[in-house]
Give the backbone structure.
Amino acid sequence: MDINARNIATPAANAPTMQPASVPVPVVGRFAPSPSGRMHLGNVFSCLCSWLSARSQGGSIVLRIEDLDDRCKRPELAAQLIDDLAWLGLEWDEGPYYQHDRLDLYESALRRLNDADLTYPCFCTRAELHAASAPHASDGTPIYRGACRNLSVEEIARRSVLRAPATRLRVPTVDDLAGDVIEFVDRTYGAQCEALATECGDFLVRRSDGVFAYQLAVVVDDAAMGVTEVVRGCDLLGSTPRQIYLQHLLGLPTPHYAHIPLLMSPDGRRLSKRDRDLDLGELRARFGTPEALLGWLAGQTGIAPDTTSRSAEQLVEHFSWNVIRAHRENITVTAE
Ligand SMILES: [Zn+2]
């Protein structure tokens, strides 16, 4: 079937990717943590950059708790996250919003995609998707080869009895006149492009257990909350083309993107949640004050010239994207 995948965005002017320089748009950044555990030094660094970037432009911050997944539906962890951000002095201006309260919005966006015949049910099992031969996208997910793209109505009915399907979004094919390549400029990593058909494939917008896909929820929320600037860890850089594609389809604006390099230990290992001494519970106990922790982190990562104690507010004058860009290959922190 030949589809013009961009035909439900109305009108084209609704999807600006650049703002004319003459029209000042208030900067709105966001914190979007998942309450799957205690905040970690890497999360603190992402939130700090997001906050400093917004504040250095006179902008505001929205706080959104991304708790769609069952393992994130833990109110005590969300409360802990909120307490940690407040302790750090990374104040937000709006929220917290909780994704579990916003399911109607995701449902309605999905309905629009369904109505435009841009989605289809996928019955593939995890084992089928992760077959050894499957090539992988930049974010590690298997590139979907379209096994369920053209199932007949009868086949869909037959399989639905056996197994609840997931929902996939059709991406343009390489022959599509509208083009299948998504391009954007990341504030840290520069020009990016991805050919959706070959480097990603039709992607999930809803899982077989009914949970909305991260990509869909984030796009709906960022637009609804007026977010103009997305600052987040570079492990999500590979998700961005899918989100931009969804924005095009739904007629939503595309924010600016800035992905933050992951923090590494001196031996070249990515710092992770396994490093228990770097969770915020331990860090709060070790540093005692937010100023001591933020000053140390800013000095280690090059935002500030040294590791003197500084509040988030005092770091605003030191912040520059040039520093983050200069260290984009790796930012090494010494945990001692
Ligand atoms: Zn499938």
Notes: The pocket of zinc ion is lined by residues 122-124, 147-148 (CB under 6 Å). The chain is about 35% helix and 15% strand. The mean pLDDT is 88.
